[in-house]
User: Fold Polyphosphate:AMP phosphotransferase from Roseibium alexandrii.
Amino acid sequence: MFESARMPQKMTKKSFKKLEPELREALLAAQLPVIEKQQFSTLILVDGLDGAGKGEAVARLYGWMDARHLVCNAYGEPMDEARLRPPLWRYWRDLPAKGETAIVFGSWYQSLLRDRIYKKIDEDAFEKGLVRIRRFEEMLANEDVLILKFWFVLPKDVQKERLKKVEKKSAGRHVLADWAALKHHKKASETGEKIILETSMGFAPWFVIPSQDPEYRDVALGQTVARSMQLKLEDGEPTSVAAPPVVGGLKRETAVDAIDLTETLEKTEYEELRKKYQDQLSELSDRKSMSKTGVVLVFQGNDAAGKGGAIRRLIRPLDPRIYKVHSISAPTDEEKARPYLWRFWRRVPRKGHFAIFDRSWYERVLVERVEGFAGHDDWLRAYNEINEFEQELTDFGYTVCKFWLAISEEEQLRRFKAREETVYKQHKITDEDWRNRLKWDQYAIAAGDMVDRTSTHYAPWTLVSAENKKHARVKVLKTICDRLDEVL
Assistant:
């Protein structure tokens, strides 16, 4: 999860130097009216992994903003005064007044995160803690507090290298503590992701910031603070949950952008591998143990990426009695009258059967988000709702495989034209397909956010290079066979 934020986003020193005055101007242009009008206060939570440069980023923010109206509150283990009171007391005590901004280190998430990592609390206590935090933040938001939560992400190998550099300069206790944190990198990352997914709300969004490059990291932080304050001044709403799509004029590269579209497969090898995996899938579907699992397959991707062709090769070796393909289009009036997941719950297969979705519940965070059919808060909360839906399926024993089929903008245009020129394919191309092409960049950002926020260990996304259809079809078949072979 959050694959995009772990990618090495880069900004040159030259670009940063040119951008810095503009960014400082934007921050002051947002902060000064907040100070003057005193319509709301601002809380900036800085969380994430040790070694990600949280302190450096905040120091730079102080240099860019009016420091007279900033306060930095850092919290460690509670002292006697705080220990004798409820956990949230010290945060209530330090809330900024309207017009003021407080930067928070060691927020109300840290003790919960630490206790879960070191197994001082169980999953039930952890979940109850998250519920309490959501209520706390919702009340603050209703009382005119702008809450901006930043999670700084750093890959383990980069974190390790940074700690080696620090260790050469100092052998103090803080270094030993950081090495201990590195030891728990995986658990901290997984628990942090769960926190973000379950507590990122429209009224208190999380922003996941790649932290490998200090200049990119700090510009992302500064731009997001400026933009969020400005939006709050204009219409009372914070901005999107995602990291900024453009930082300092540089487009944020997502995991979807990074798919290698050059992967290919020659016809002879394709025929051999296709038959191999189709035969294997047929054998797997006939196993006695198949009765213990249901299989849910989700196909999403760029228009004309070949979802239908991949599905046809997939169902060829299956007994028609054990699968159903669901082609999902715009919801009917009956479906609109109910919560959006209703129509998918109705299509959940019985154990021993396959449900194959050509588009799915993910349209909520793709088409409905981009086209404005779902409001900001609606598609924002959908990430967590979808994860919970898929976890219910997997907890019951289902196998969930999700595929994003990717092609380039140029290849899509070629395929669109080919469909228009081929009589038996003309039904596949519509005016809506051409309209969607005009929003290619918006859909790319939405797809990147979708993969980041819904690729879980129990229902991971498989990103498929579909520029070459043969490669895509084999990749899909192999992935399904591998997943079923693990569970059957």
